């Protein structure tokens, strides 16, 4: 079995090339910590990924092994717990990712909110797990394109993430031309201005002013009060195990009234997670009464 021999030799080479030893005990300790702190359930198969992401921290701190590193994290020396969380989380995102959600927002949700909230003249949106900001800025573009006529309304987007690095990027609102390649050219012209280097673009203040960016770990207490008309929590709970998903979706349900909406990512579902929502579209859920 030549293939197997190659595979064994390749694994041995990788081990030889490794700067640090990641023992089974260390890996299990990391898995426990990640589940407790972030809610994320790390599969055995993520060992290489974890090694790659955390070995950078060992190097930066000039530590010799994962055991000493984990002591730093557990004691939260010099805020290492935050660096650990930043290193572990996955941030893939893009403008108008899963574009049908934004069509639904423009065509169904906003007209309904305009009718139903006409007394309070208030709308609240939450991008939970907003990464580098593409999601809340996409929501903001749709809002400004569709509800500009609602003068005097109080309309806000809360955008939260556990990772302080991606949040700084989001707040700054500076994106490379590459990240904006797929954005409709009319939107690019309307909502972005070229940066001085001519290779990046900055979001216009009008968009930024609609959004409050805040650090928030979904596993901790949430400071905000409802009601929140629409929650976007896309491609976040997929990393959590079912028990944690139940807990988090249950807490979201408390912040929503009947007919409010919860939008999940393409491979996420509320099956066996919550019976407080009804599926009304492609991963779009409507809060039921009660
Ligand atoms: C894959 S990104 C999704 C970004 C965006 N929602 C989208 O769908 O394009 C997942 C985001 O969830 C954040 N995240 C993971 N665990 C979290 C937690 N426990 N609390 C808050 N945010 C978390 C990560 O930092 C990351 O930015």
Main attributes?
single chain, 290 residues, alpha/beta, Chemotaxis Receptor Methyltransferase Cher, domain 1, Rossmann fold, 2 domains, 3-stranded antiparallel sheet, 11 helices, 16% strand, globular, disordered N terminus, binds S-adenosylmethionine
Q: Report mean pLDDT, rounded to a whole number.
A: 93
* SS strand fraction: 15-25%
Number of helices: 11
Radius of gyration: 22 Å
Q: What structural category arises from helix and sheet content?
A: alpha/beta
Distance between the termini: 61 Å
CATH topology of the largest domain: Rossmann fold
The 3D shape can be described as globular
SSE pattern, N- to C-terminal: HHHHHHEHEHEHEEHEEHEEE
Number of strands: 10
Give the tally of structural domains: 2
Catalogue the unreliable spans: 1-13
Spatial strand sequence of the major β-sheet: 6-2-1-7-8-10-9
Which kinds of small molecule does this entry bind, naming each only once? S-adenosylmethionine
Describe the structure.
This protein has 290 residues and is an alpha/beta fold. It has two domains: 87 residues, Chemotaxis Receptor Methyltransferase Cher, domain 1; 188 residues, 3-Layer(aba) Sandwich (Rossmann fold). The chain is built from eleven helices and ten strands. Helix 7 links the parallel strand 1 and strand 2. Helix 3 runs antiparallel to helix 5. The longest helix is centred in the middle third of the chain and has 17 residues. The protein is globular. The chain binds S-adenosylmethionine. The site of S-adenosylmethionine has 23 residues, from loops.
């Amino acid at each position: 079995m030549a293939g197997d021999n190659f595979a064994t030799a390749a694994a041995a080479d990788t081990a030889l090339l490794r700067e640090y030893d990641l023992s089974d005990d260390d890996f299990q300790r990391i898995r426990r910590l990640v589940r407790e702190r972030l809610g994320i359930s790390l599969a055995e198969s993520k060992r290489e990924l974890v090694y790659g992401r955390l070995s950078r921290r060992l190097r930066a701190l000039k530590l010799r092994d994962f055991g000493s590193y984990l002591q730093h994290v557990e004691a939260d020396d010099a805020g290492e717990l935050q660096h650990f969380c930043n290193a572990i989380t996955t941030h893939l995102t893009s403008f108008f990712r899963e574009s049908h959600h934004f069509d639904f927002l423009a065509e169904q949700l906003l007209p309904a909110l305009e009718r139903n909230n006409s007394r309070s003249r208030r709308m609240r949106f939450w991008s939970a797990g907003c990464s580098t900001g593409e999601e809340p800025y996409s929501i903001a573009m749709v809002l400004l394109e569709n509800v500009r006529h609602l003068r005097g309304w109080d309309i806000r987007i809360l955008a939260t993430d556990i990772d302080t690095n991606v949040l700084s990027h989001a707040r700054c609102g500076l994106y490379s031309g590459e990240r904006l390649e797929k954005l409709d050219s009319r939107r690019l012209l309307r909502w972005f201005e070229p940066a001085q280097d001519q290779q990046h673009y900055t979001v216009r203040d009008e968009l930024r002013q609609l959004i409050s960016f805040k650090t928030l770990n979904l596993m901790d207490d949430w400071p905000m009060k409802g009601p929140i008309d629409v929650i976007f929590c896309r491609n976040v709970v997929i990393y959590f195990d079912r028990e944690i998903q139940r807990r988090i979706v249950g807490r979201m349900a408390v912040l929503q009234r009947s007919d409010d909406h919860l939008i999940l990512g393409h491979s996420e579902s509320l099956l066996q997670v919550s019976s407080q929502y009804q599926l009304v579209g492609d991963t779009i859920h409507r809060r039921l009464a009660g």
